[in-house]
Amino acid sequence: MKKAQMETIGLVVIVTLLAFIFIFVLQNSAKQDLTKFNSRYSQLNADNLRSTILKTTICSDVDIEKEISNCIGYGSGLCFSTNCKNELEKTIKEIIKNSMNITKSYSFTVRSNQEIKLEIKSGTCKNVYSASSQLIPYSDLKINLNLC
After folding, report:
1. What is the mean pLDDT of residues 68-96?
2. What is the pTM for the complete model shown?
């Protein structure tokens, strides 16, 4: 073979290797962007679900956020006067069940000074994919929603 042919073959091999390296780098960067997108999407779902739960009206002009404040803060709710924690638990479970994929696990907790006041779980939350928390105004209650 002539020297020019050998150089041409070498150039083709180098260009081919560079093309494969470029494709590999491009695929990995696309996967990382997709992972970031999925985590942001899950976080948005958790935030929306928490807001939906807290703003759901359960009786005339009383939403779940007000009912949680009254039930846990004063021992009696505005809509559920007896067994308000049990009634709140049933209502919140129903909202979550109707709002998200049943195969996911979740944990909905209401805390006051690190003490759990109300906890609703479905399944085990070993790996939390997205979490959302909110403080209830004019109280020391913090609501956490973990989607697993």
Report:
1. 83
2. 0.66
